[in-house]
Amino acid sequence: MLMSKSLPALALLALLVGCASRAPAPITAPAPRPTPPAGGWPARDGPDAVIPPDLHKVPDAAPKLENIRKGGPNKPYEVLGQRYQPMAGDEPLIERGLASWYGRKFHGRPTASGEIYNMYAMTAAHPTMPIPSYARVRNPKNGREIIVRVNDRGPFHRGRIIDLSYTAALKLDLLRGVGAVELERLTYEDIRTGAWMRGSEPAAPVEPPPVYVASDASGAPALSTTASVAAVPPAAMPAATPAAPSADPAALLADEAALPQIRTVAAPGFWVQLGAFSQLAGAESFRQQLLKEADWMAPLLTVFKDRALHRLQAGPYPTREDARQAAERVRLALALQPVVVERR
Fold first, then answer.
1. Is 61 exposed, middle or buried (0-12, 13-18, 19+ CB in 10 A)?
2. What is the pLDDT of residue 126?
């Protein structure tokens, strides 16, 4: 009986000894989570989880004259075995094709221009348009039109001609997918004259009291009757430009093809007036001199016919402060005293 009573105890003791002799079970680390893309960008593109309200009220891009960058985003490049040759100059471009849009996957990332992509701004990407450029995009199905600033490269899919920001696609009602559009690049001439504002004729400028701003081709000071002259101390207003034009006005007049096309209507905004001349040859001669000494002004310069004067102006600039800074740059570089004027 004693032996029989001790059997269960012995069995239990043997079981405990056997368990103690086994190696402990290894402790495993949690399975690693998938590593997010660099910077935490989503793997797939699309809209944000929370969309800001009233995006349809975001104004279109406001075209302004910007120098086309040399090299950088305007160099030839290759993507997916396809070679692209960006436009090198200020040329017109009209295209018809498909438009797509890009969103949160690229939001906050650098564009081809180096600027940070904002999916809620009025921007776009184009394979070959000069950077920067401005373009009109139209949805032929509903007649909606927008103006965007091109600062990126893409799209790289057959048949697609432009990649819109989220807001740009929203305003055209193209968020549901790829859609047909008509595209037109705005040239410097379109921007200078305000021709890009379809159906909107710029108002005639209001004339202020005259002030002396520059000399004409003969050396005599010419009166300025510009639209709206910025406040400039009287001591800063020169009686004449410091250097006489080097080109021969008579030779320029003899060759009409050498003279620029005169404008009588300008886009509204702020302009920097560099001189007012009684003869067109004087304005053109001075323009050629400026191009040699400050080639960055090339896309900005225009000669306007105003009564008996020919005004050489640079612009337009969207704000008076932008124009003031440009005028200061001219003053430091060329020892001129330009005047900021406003055209409404």
1. buried
2. 97
